[in-house]
## 1
Amino acid sequence: MPKKTFFNLPDNKREKLIESAEEEFSRVPLSQASIANIVKAAGIPRGSFYQYFENKEDAFYYLLEAQTNKRKEFFIISLQKNNGDILAAIEDLFCLMLKELGEEDNLNFLKNALMNVTHEIEDVFTKIFTIKDSGKSSLIEIRNMIDKEKLNISDEKEFFHIMQILTSVTFRNLVDKYSRDISDEEALENFMIEMNLLRKGLSK
Amino acid sequence: MPKKTFFNLPDNKREKLIESAEEEFSRVPLSQASIANIVKAAGIPRGSFYQYFENKEDAFYYLLEAQTNKRKEFFIISLQKNNGDILAAIEDLFCLMLKELGEEDNLNFLKNALMNVTHEIEDVFTKIFTIKDSGKSSLIEIRNMIDKEKLNISDEKEFFHIMQILTSVTFRNLVDKYSRDISDEEALENFMIEMNLLRKGLSK
DNA sequence: ATAATAAGTGACACAATGTCATAAGTCAAT
DNA sequence: ATTGACTTATGACATTGTGTCACTTATTAT
């Protein structure tokens, strides 16, 4: 987490810093990103950066988490629309991310994150499915929104593992799209094939 | 790939270099590994390293690939034992890797690789399932060893996606074991739950 | 006004990377 | 044996990057 000085910053300065960091993390993956570039673009001295963040990673994960939170809202709405059908909701989320990744130029950020998914990064994304902090400290358990009757499970433990499987597969498909430079259509087709295999089971 | 000078090296020198590199990649993940440490341990000048490898990554992937090839043999045997049942064979492979990871000290190498899986690393591991170069240039297609009758698929394309799903899930389980520091027993139990869910399908 | 606390600053020490000019070694042909 | 073409070895160097620290400046409380 950023240090408290970061949150004490005047809005415009903080925003400029965020913007500069996003720019750098959009340019190259985390490992190649340079603090020098960030502070230069933000017009602050090097020492200040360390006043606000522990290090490069701290800044990166803060930004990634912020972006992910936006996607949570979409996911919740989609889950409601689909009457608690988790597989359908995840399909919607996959489409959203395809769309996002095609659109804005500065969303190379997401691309760079996907191309270097480590378990830490995957964990951040996975938070979409756990707990939602919607505005006024009201916590909604997404777990409870999911219609478990639609799933082929006998206990709560199996439900957890279904979520694990779904995230692994969804991720892998997103990563593939970029590492293999596949068209949106093809990526979606691949993903749907896999989702259907998951639905019906791999074994005869 | 290493440069040709690397392969021209006298055996003992090459082996010492390999050993030193493995040591360094066992100490820390790729991003933190230092060429300085490798050349120091191998007793060669810095410039020589670049005579043999393009860079750090080149050396890392070369070593990773070498290790992975060893696991291929095991996988093939296991696939035969299980009469082409791919899910059963993958379960065996998972057990093998758990065992390997528990045993030798220098197999922190594998651990460091797993904790920082990117699509490149996943791709190297995935090669286990594609083509096997067994000793005398005889190529065996693993694909053909798999009994597709046991799978719930209608075409070759779906078969490919089943492999995708299985690798994603297997990986995720291995990574989890180390990122969450789970016991072998628990890791295996989790993995088996997911494999069974995959078998029977997620949806009612 | 003064003290205390927080924030800002940039030079610095240190470590890492990849390159390059030069030295040393190998080997076949004369 | 000598030459010369080619391959390999070497380590100093330029460059870039990280995180720290002593010191300055601003802000807030008393």
## 2
Amino acid sequence: MGSAEVLASVDIVALRLNARGGLELLLGRRAQAPYEGQWALPGVLVNGRSADLNLDSAAERALHSKAKARPQYLEQVATVGNAVRDPRGWSLSTFYLALLGPDDELLDQDLRFVPVEEVLDERFPLPFDHAQLVAQSRERLAGKAVYTSLPLYLLPARFTVTEALAAFQASLGQAVQHTTLRGRLEKMKQAGWIVETGEKNYPKMGRPQNLLEHRPQPEQPFVFDRSVLS
Amino acid sequence: MGSAEVLASVDIVALRLNARGGLELLLGRRAQAPYEGQWALPGVLVNGRSADLNLDSAAERALHSKAKARPQYLEQVATVGNAVRDPRGWSLSTFYLALLGPDDELLDQDLRFVPVEEVLDERFPLPFDHAQLVAQSRERLAGKAVYTSLPLYLLPARFTVTEALAAFQASLGQAVQHTTLRGRLEKMKQAGWIVETGEKNYPKMGRPQNLLEHRPQPEQPFVFDRSVLS
DNA sequence: ATAATAGTGTCTGTGAGACATTATGTA
DNA sequence: TACATAATGTCTCACAGACACTATTAT
């Protein structure tokens, strides 16, 4: 039966929003060959010997065993498989999009964040086809940001409209009218997904900002019935 | 390296629209154990020895080696993996949604179509977790039918508005206003995705129907910027 | 003429887009 | 007071929903 089998892994495209409104990708230094010592997507092999109940828990294991923080959102994106992506032979990778809160600390020297754009334009090369996996996950995020509240999972539970604008802009790659976003947040309030805390945030300049609180329902983002764009 | 590997397959959820406006699922009789002789989703094992270039071509092989017809649309839905779905042990299945034209003939005694509802409500039980894969693929179709032209891939290239209504109703599980659908088809005309043939179809009763022709662009369905529902 | 079905027109409601206006803080 | 930024209001436009009305065939 051994030769009927194939090399399979789960890889994580974990994104967070940095203070300048850009998306950053979590990378880990590979501990084993191939590409030992290089920066790559965190991932684990899946096979009968690992204790994973299923693929989703393997994804959680991959993320938790490296970065300590749990993702605020985790979604399977797709699976790629071919003969050339891994020098060891025909292999499969099921990859997940993970959205992290902005403040997660890196406790580990073998972890770092890099701006996604640097990965996508090859300034920061990744081994295997990992840059392609990042690109597909990025597209998934952008696609869903058009008609769901997905970018809010890049924010802390309590957030301001300005922060939400930054999350949508980073996810979509383009600006959103703040009035449009306010309308959508209003809908989410009515549905109980967002509550007005009554508290305010006092930045150095300008009018104080209302603090909202995100109350996400189990797993799926809020779905709107229109596109934000044009 | 052998024990680092895992059993992986590609399975196909191929749907077509029958004359009564219902969705039917393509099944094949299993030639090998486990579940030899039972009706199940057509699928193939993927491993280094099969000549597939990649997962997508393995999916095409799975469909083409069984049913002769090529799908009008093929999309990867997801991958499931756990220790219990296959009696042989930890296994992966990457499954695809395929949309077929309505007239495909079955040349093979080991192939048949069954109504999807019978599979979803367990009246027609399937081995492994295949009913679950069908349910997820069905949801993908319904989800995309809300804001894309995906159901048109269930029709022949030349179709009428009435047929398009049936395809959307079957995909969504609920009726669509014909005026709404006409508006969407009009948009697709302007974008060059649909052309008016000028010919008409003459049913037994009633006013003749305009014949439209679907000119799908490479791979992705036409995307509208609103939901059809409420 | 009548039945049956296809196609068009009209009115309403919703929410995005753009932009102006008002509100509330700091220096 | 001046400035910076947040929040609200207004007007337009596109399109879905509902429903009425007109058009074109067969019997």
